[in-house]
Amino acid sequence: MRKLFAILLMGLLWFTLAPADAAAAGAPDTHLVPCQASEAFQERMQNAPESYYFDQPYQAYESNLLCGADGLPHLQLRFDRAIDVVIPFAIFFYFAGFVGWSGRAYLIGSKRASKPEETEIFIDLPLAIRAFSQGLLWPLLAIKELTAGELTVQKNELSVSPR
C-alpha cells in the first residue's frame, strides 16, 4: 500500500511541479514559425517534383503546421494537446495488460488441470474464455491482488544467487 501511495505521490508531484512549456507561459517560440512564413520550407516546396503526392501534403503543411530552420514541418508537444498522446498510450497499455493478464490467468488455471503440460500445448477452450474474461478486468484485478499481497512475493521467498 505504501508503494502505491509513493507512486501516486510521485506522479502528482511530477505533473504539478514540472515546468510549463515556454509557449504556454507566454514566451514566444522562436525556433518554429508557420510554414508559410519559412523561407526554407518555401524553397523545399518549389524544388519538389510536381505531382499529387507532393503538392497536397505541402499545401496542408503550409497552412497548418509550424516549420523549423531546416524547412521541415514539426509537431509541437503542448499540454493542451496531451490527449493526443494519452489516448493511444492508454489503449496500448490496456491491451498489453489484457494480453499479459489473460496469459497469466490461463497458465495459473492450467496448473490446476490433471495434465497441465497438455493444457499448455492443446488449448482448453473453456479455460481460455474464462482467462480472457478475467483479462478484460485486469486493472481492477491487479489492484485487488496488489493490495491483498497476492501479486508480489515476499522478500524471504526471493532466491538470491550467491556471489
From TrEMBL:
Protein name: Photosystem I reaction center subunit III
InterPro entries named in the record: PSI_PsaF, PSI_PsaF_sf
Task of the protein: Participates in efficiency of electron transfer from plastocyanin to P700 (or cytochrome c553 in algae and cyanobacteria). This plastocyanin-docking protein contributes to the specific association of plastocyanin to PSI.
Ranges that cross the membrane: 85-107
Subcellular location: Cellular thylakoid membrane
Domain of life: Bacteria
Primary location: membrane
GO biological-process terms attached to the record: photosynthesis
Keyword NADP: no
Family assignment from sequence similarity: Belongs to the PsaF family.
Gene Ontology annotations for the cellular component aspect, listed alphabetically: photosystem I reaction center; plasma membrane-derived thylakoid membrane
Region forming the signal peptide: 1-20
The entry's keywords: Membrane, Photosynthesis, Photosystem I, Signal, Thylakoid, Transmembrane, Transmembrane helix
